[in-house]
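ingest -> validate -> predict -> emit
validate: passed (alphabet ok, no gaps, 150 aa)
predict: started
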Amino acid sequence: MKATRHAKILELISKTNVETQDELAQLLRDSGFDVTQATVSRDIKELRLNKVLSEKGVYRYTSTERNETASVNLLVRMFAESVVSIDCAGNLIVIKTISGSANIAAEAIDSMKWPEIAGTLAGDNTIFVALRDNEACEKIMTKFKNLVQR
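emit:
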């Protein structure tokens, strides 16, 4: 029952601007769930829901996953706007960025969680991307170039 209720909560907050726990509880009741405000409060904590400012200027519940996706998209955009060049040297990809933006670009790379990447090291305008093997270099360089060309 709990898993079904959690799924319904995620569905409701994805389709509706839910501003309060009471509003969420009422929507759940309207959907056939017998819930109290305390139950909804526990569900919100377990689902790690957050309140964010909506386009309409009011706060609404959203899932952490959705927030993380938005953050990754923002980082990827920042990555694309800061990259100057991309080159490969063995199992390292060397990315040059505009001055001062290598750290945020490396954070974008890390947030993508590509399995071929072992890690990144950033300076002021240079990022070293360590790959797990030499064969992945061309594939990952192509993926980076596609991000930059968006």
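The chain has a mean pLDDT of 88.
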